[in-house]
Amino acid sequence: MNFQKNTVKKISLVLFLILSFGITALAQDKKGPTIDYGAVEEAMPVAARNNLYCAGYIQKSPVNTSLEIVGGDDEKDQYVYAEGDELYISGGSGAGVQVGDMYSVIRPRGNFKSKFSKKGNLGIFVQELGAVEVIRVIGDVSVARVKTSCSEFLLGDLLKRSETRVSPKTMERPLLDRFASSSGKASGSIVLARGGLEILGRDQIVYVDLGREDNVQIGDYLTIYRPLGTGNIYTYVQPEHIDNKDEGFESNRYKGGGYSNRSGRKKGSNADGAVVTTEDAKSRRPKGLRKIVGELVVLNVLERTATAVVVRNASEIHTGDRVEIQ
């Protein structure tokens, strides 16, 4: 009998707890769902990995050629090298090389000029390939291990002491203003893109002819634009109208349709003047109208140029497009 009473008590307690939980849940449901907003959004870097350390640059000063890759531990089986490979470099303790030193691997590509720039010779375009770490110093040479590679290394590639780079950071920004007026600050052009690309989008690396001499700084935002009506991918222009002498429209009497929707538009209040054309209409608008196509952030600044990354684009971006400091 006592066993049955205890069993009934336990069942009653369970039912009570279930009922209480259901009522509480129902009350909370009537109040609406709870929203977890999470932590406040932190500033995010605009570039990382190879966009930060393998972006490349155009420098005006001569390239230091004192350190280069002169051998590979497995050169009998390979002639290109990448992450994890061990290499010999032409510098030892006498050149100040020490275990633990980090070096960027670079490949100068030659003096660079651009038809898009008024500055003439902008300097030497230098490709950045990756980085190595010195693991042993042996007399006049040292052994280095490839820590990271954005492209294959070759014997003869040069070394430059690595510098720590910190990417500019950005919080959420207002929508790109495609009709913003000029800031009046220094302007230049996109003279080259990494890899020789000519049509660009977000996260791609470009080089502009604005540098220290133009007071450009790392982290600056640049507006990308072009004169309104330029930058067409296709050069063919569809005829705007059919001349009256052309046959095949309306009837043989009108021969081209003087009143058709493909007939010429006429100037004058009586529509009896010269034919109106698109180019004619463009000639009567204010000078300086522009199309804004994107936005850059500067990653590295040298004497006459800067390296930047595309962070936003409203349409395709071309080499040769204009840029302006915001």
What does this structure look like?
The protein has 326 residues and is mainly beta. It has three helices and 21 strands. It has helices at 2-31, 50-53, 278-282, and strands at residues 44-45, 57-59, 69-72, 80-81, 86-89, 102-113, 121-138, 141-149, 153-154, 158-161, 169-170, 187-193, 199-200, 205-208, 221-227, 265-266, 275-276, 290-301, 306-313, 317-318, 322-325. Strands 2, 3, 5, 6, 7, 8 and 10 form a seven-stranded antiparallel sheet that branches. A six-stranded antiparallel barrel has the order 12-14-19-18-15-21. It starts with a helix and ends with a strand.
Helix amount, in percent?
10-25%
List low-pLDDT spans. Answer: 34-40
Strands, total number: 21
Average predicted local confidence, pLDDT: 84
Give the distance, in angstroms, between the N- and C-terminal Cα atoms. 88 Å
Question: How many separate helices?
Answer: 3
Secondary-structure-derived class: mainly beta
Tell the overall outline: elongated
Please state the CA-atom Rg, rounded to the nearest Å. 33 Å
Give the SSE order as H and E letters. Answer: HEHEEEEEEEEEEEEEEEEHEEEE
Largest sheet: 7 strands, antiparallel
**How much of the sequence is in beta strands?**
25-35%
